[in-house]
Specification:
By secondary structure, the chain is α+β, with helices and mostly antiparallel strands. It has a single domain (about 1-115), classed as Alpha-Beta Plaits. The chain is built from three helices and six strands; from the N terminus they run βααββββαβ.
């Protein structure tokens, strides 16, 4: 089963603030554990939304609308992701629970979603 751990953006990640060296080490260790267990497929961080472009389709059949970042609703933004392949939903939850606070400022949020 394929799952995506979606690391939600925060004010700090949107400002381009990097995590502390201790958190970077903890995240590296977590990623090494995922790889050693053979469950990590891909893990990447994303640039802040100030470098992003949003394409929306407000009117069916009409041209899409392009909006350049930054986007203000940081609660809805994604800062990174880890794609894992596991045997069960429970195993995916267990791996998600092991992730360190991805923001390091008490702002971290992870969304776990199964991939079709």
């Amino acid at each position: 089963m394929l799952f995506m751990l979606i690391v939600k953006a925060s004010k700090n990640s949107e400002a381009g603030n990097l995590p502390s060296p201790a958190l970077m080490d903890a995240m590296s260790k977590y990623n090494e554990e995922l790889a050693a267990a053979g469950v990590r497929v891909l893990a990447k961080g994303l640039h802040p939304s100030s470098n992003g472009i949003r394409i929306s389709f407000p009117n069916p059949g009409e041209e899409p609308v392009v909006t350049e970042g930054p986007f203000t609703e940081s609660n809805d933004l994604v800062a990174g992701f880890i794609l894992i392949e596991v045997k069960s939903r429970e195993e995916a939850i267990a791996w998600a629970m092991r992730m360190p606070d991805p923001q390091g400022y008490g702002e971290g949020r992870i969304e776990l979603r199964q991939v079709f």
